[in-house]
Description:
It comes from Camelina sativa. By secondary structure, the chain is mainly α. The protein is built from 28 helices and two strands.
Amino acid sequence: MMEAKPKRRIVTENGDTGEDLVLATLIGNGDDVGPLVRHAFEMGRPEPLVHQLKNVAKKKEAEIEDLCKTHYEEFIVAVDELRGVLVDAEELKSDLASDNFRLQEVGSALLVKLEELLESYAIKKNVTEAIKMSKICVQALELCVKCNGFISEGQFYHALKTMDLIEKSYLKLIPLKVLKLVIERRIPVIKSHIEKKVCSQFNEWLVHIRSSSKNIGQTAIGLTASARQREEEMLERQRRAEEQNTGGLGELAYTLDVEDSEQDSVLKFDLTPLYRAYHIHTILGVPERFRDYYYENRLLQLKSDLQISYAQPFVESYQTFLAQIAGYFIVEDRVIRTAGDFLLADQVETMWETAISKIVAILENQFARMDSPTHLLLVKDYVTLLGTTLRQYGYEVGPVLDALDKSRDKYHELLLEECRRQIVTAITEDSYQQMVIKKEADYENNVLSFNLQTSDIMPAFTYIAPFSSMVPDVCRIIRSYIKGSVDYLSYGVNTNFFSVLRKYLDKILIDVLNEVILETINNNSIGVSQAMQIAANISFLEKACDYFIRHAAQLCGIPSRSVEKPQASLAAKVVLKTSRDEAYLALLNVVNTKLDEFMKLTENVNWITEEMPQGPHEYINEVVIYLETVMSTAQQILPMDALYKVGVGAVEHISNSIVSTFLSDSIKRFNANAVSAINHDLRVIENFADERYHSSGLNEIYKEGSFRSYLVEARQLINLLSSSQPENFMNPVIRERNYNTLDYKKVATICDKFKDSPDGIFGSLANRNTKLTAKKKSMDMLKKRLKEFN
């Protein structure tokens, strides 16, 4: 065949426009004329384009005619060849018909065999289906048997999983309706049976876990107590290091820390029955019902545990009661941490609020009933251990600690009363004799332990302490009070409780110790030695106040240097100092009373004697001996300032006694001989005062206030009465120099009683001389001028 490639020609006719040529060129080149068509319609002028297309079509038809004319011969050849092909096709058709006939003959036999084969396949299919259905029934029955075995063995989880497999994978496939119906009816019965068995096992676990809660709580609290003991031992080592100045520790805060992992490893209790029961109820599709059942039963158990028996004293049952509560909430914490979403935090919070309100009410009630600080402290310690233990598990124990804080005053009242009895016993049973210490150990226990030493040098033994046994006894009582107070205040609401402790320490020192001492001082039966020893004891108790505040600071974990400042001292120290002054006054009153008994000037002195005295009266020797004894004892026991006060008070009282005797209404008159006798007595006292003032070393301390200076009023009065010119008293210069302590009225009263003449009937005629007459005139002039002055 010849192939002729048409040549592209552009036919132009007369009258063709430029647009026709462009369109013809595009079509001839095979380009897309779509844009032209779209543009013509968008412009609203399709008619010109249609006209142009028609022109192009006419031109193409002309080209086709030209082409056909050119290839006419080739077309004739092609038609002849096509006729030859038709002949060959007829021959092929005849051959096919012949082959088909022969195939039909051969295939008939095969078709019969095919039908037989298909029938065999159908039978095989039915048999296979029957075997499959039988296997399903057998497998379902085997699973049922297996499920029964799990139930009998108590493996309820596996039994439920097996039933779930039967329901989902086999029940719909079982062809036997009878078998299917039986299985469908038994499944709910079996599930109900499993649920009852699981609940029964869970109820047994509830009983068991409740009975185990006490041991769980006791174990946990014991671990907390051990940790607290380790902490206290560490604090003790820190205190000792601070006391030995081995390093600056600063203010340290210690908190009790017990690792949860440690407690979890020790607190072993089995929650498997709970997990199993919850898991099985989850598989049964009723997890909410089981959660509610658990919560309601545990809440009932809690309410039962919160009931206490009033038949048994609380002090005997509080540990069991609190340990049971601790164990209960430790179990609940383990449940909420390990059982997923089984227990809600709000539910545990509700249970805890129920427990905390009941515990607080019980504690407040029981604390109000208690009358022993020891019992209250025991309960408080265990409650703080409970709080520390449960705080580690995230429970808010603030209300419990607040209840303890509210009972703080009650505890200290009981402790104060107990210490009051001990202090009263220590003071009333005191011998008021200086303590004799024979061994170094006793010195350390009774002196060094409370910083009562007067020297840093260890004394030789036997050592006579300046205080009596009451002082170390009272110090031990106060120390035990501080320890008891710290024991109650520690591990409570306030971690920095030193200020509170200080208040209670001042209270026992002021309201108890000081009051008991004052009662003893004001007792009329107190003697000189007792009053003197009490005054000495008070001075050492003042000194012990510094030890008390340091000891309290150490127990509170506060550095000693922070309480060594003057402004940090106890208020009781000032109060005791005032009581010490009271003791000095009581001592002086006893001494003065005894001096009055010895002196009795109205009885021991002949105020109108006619004989000139040759020396002092006998009573004055007893006075000096008594004063010597008092001052010697005081010098051994009392500090120098107290010794000075005793000496000054005694001689001043003697001076006042002499002056008051002259003023006494019982002395109606006296003469110069009586004045001379008193002068001898006064000189003995003055000599004693000077000797004791210098021998005791007081002259080195009180240089401007000797004992003699406190006899000045009596001396000036005697000098005035003995003076040859007593009227000089009215001379301001002389009076200021020689009689400045004498009062006008007193002098006037005494001078009125001065009668310098004997009582005899002829007294005015005897022993008269010019000197006496001049003195009498001077005295009369003084009396006259005093009357005028008054």
